[in-house]
Amino acid sequence: MTAPDPAQGRRQLRATDVKRLNREWRRRTNARLGLLVESVTQPFNVGSIVRSAAVFGVDHLWLAGNTTPPTHRNAAKTALGTDRLVPWEHAGTPAEAAAAVRKEGLRLVAVELTTDAVPLHEAPLDGDVCLAVGGEDHGCSPALLAAADAVTYIPQIGRVGSLNVAVAAAIALAEARRREWSD
Known about the structure:
Elements: H1 15-27, E1 33-38, H2 43-55, E2 60-64, H3 73-79, E3 88-90, H4 94-103, E4 107-111, E5 118-119, E6 129-133, H5 142-147, E7 150-153, H6 165-182
Parallel strand pairs: 1-2, 1-6, 2-3, 4-6, 4-7, 5-7
C-alpha cells in the first residue's frame, strides 16, 4: 500500500480494498498452519479462537479433551460465521489429537509456561506447524506437553501472570504468520 496523500487525509479501506489486500497476503503465505485446542470450555473463548483461526488462515483445527465445539450456540455467535471457514474435528484425547497433527505432517508447538519453553519470538515456527493451547484454568495438560515437539511462551512484562486463552492463541497465530511473511 502506498502512503496516504496528506492533502487527502487518512481513510479506512473500502471492502474491495480490504479484499485486495487480503489476496496479496494470501499469495505470500505458503506454510500450513494448524491449531490444537485442548479443553477450552467457555463457548465465547472457542468462538474467538475460531475467528482468529479464520483470520490467520488456519488450515485445520483439532479439538481435544472437553473443548466446547464451535457449533455451540454461543461459540458460533462469537465466531460470526467463521466457524464455516475453518475445517475442524474433535480428535479425542490430547495424545490422539497430537497423533492426528503428526499424521498431517505438522510439527506441534504448545503455548505454555514450562521449564524448557522458549519465548514466542524464538520458537520453531518455520514450515508447517500446529500451535496448541490449553484450557482456561490449567493450560496444556501433561499429556499434550509430552506430545509436543517444542513449547513456547508469550513474554509478559505486566503484573498479570497469564493471558486469556483466546488472546494467547491469536498472538501465537499472528507470530507464526508474521515470521513466515518476514522471510
